[in-house]
Amino acid sequence: MSKALCHRNRRLKTGALVSITMLMACLQSSHSYAAESTYQLPKSSILKPSSDFDFFAYSKKLHKDHQARHAFRQGVNPQKWQTTARAALKTLLALPESAPAPLNAKLGEKLKCAVVIDKRVYKYTRQEILYYSRPNYPVGGYFLLPDNANNSKAKYSAVVCMPGHGSRVQDIVGLQPDGNTRSTLSADYQHDLAVQCVANGYATIAIESLGLGSRASYSKRKEFPQGQDCNQFDGPLNLYGDSLIGYRVYDALRAIDYLQSRNDINKDSIATVGVSAGGAISLFAAALDTRVKCAVVSCFLNDINSSLLSHIHCGCNYVPNLGKEFRLSDIGGLIAPRLLLIEASKNDHAFPLSGAKLAYEETKKIYSALKVPQNVILFQTKGDHQFDGYEAFKRLKLDLR
Ligand SMILES: [Zn+2]
Predict the structure, then answer these.
(1) What is the band of 35 on the pLDDT scale with cuts at 50, 70, 90?
(2) N or C: less crowded end of the chain, CB within 10 Å?
(3) Rounded to the nearest whole angstrom, what is the distance from the C-alpha of residue 13 to the centroid of ligand 1?
């Protein structure tokens, strides 16, 4: 393939639509935000709404008063810091200590597909995939492979793709709600990022996030026909010291196990790519697992104060106790010296560019300590909260081989 592909040209025409789509995606899946009470309080009430009750201000103060225990500090040995910090992060995410469960992976029917990007047709095959990260509860998703009939013995570099909030993983693999395949990239904020990966020549596995699509709770489907709330999954997992984000990250790590089990994959050439809540999974998975050669984190890596504590986010963005132990920039630093490409959009109010710049500068200190400051890149996009891919695919082309 002569050049990296992305939806970039298309995106500029659909900005307004994408903004509305993204807003709906953020607010959907039955999140309920209580309207301010209309209950009339007497003039003398000491319970009237006031800044004294502002929880964001309170939580920001909590954050300010905490020194993150494993934050990277200048002068420490960066490799030793990474070893300690990676172990601490694994504990925060409550990843299993036991040997991995058998994947028992199954692939569905192989379907031939095609997408047109910038007037060029890219052929690929798509299969449903099902595997077990943990015993007794399956992970579903799709496996995409470039349709490379002239080179059946090719070994592919591979990408693990994670969707953000939306209806389901089909949003990023070129599937329409009616089950047909899109012939062009979606205008949705995720822009069929898995299809973009396969069009760029990568074997691609796109996994359904726990709580969405087929991995919403089967018995609650009639009760919540519009989709289920991530918090409905986080709560039960919290009872056992787990978290929704911990489960999702582990699902991504097991997807790498699957890729490495295949004969047609270059085991040393695997990346993670995700946007928004999927960007969080890409970040944490790459930080934990050095099998990941490079990571693209779109619309997530940020200063905690500017993002997670300044806007209403879904609970799946929050790793329990993370603030006590790390800044998000430290998680980025765990990816060093491997390539980390951060996408931040200048009109993204949920994960603002100013906060992304703060985090990038801190992450870069860790890369600098390892003498590879060039391997962390902040790519500023022109849109709002959405996957861009323009610089990401150019860089992946250099790193994945
Ligand atoms: Zn969520």
Answers:
(1) low
(2) C
(3) 28
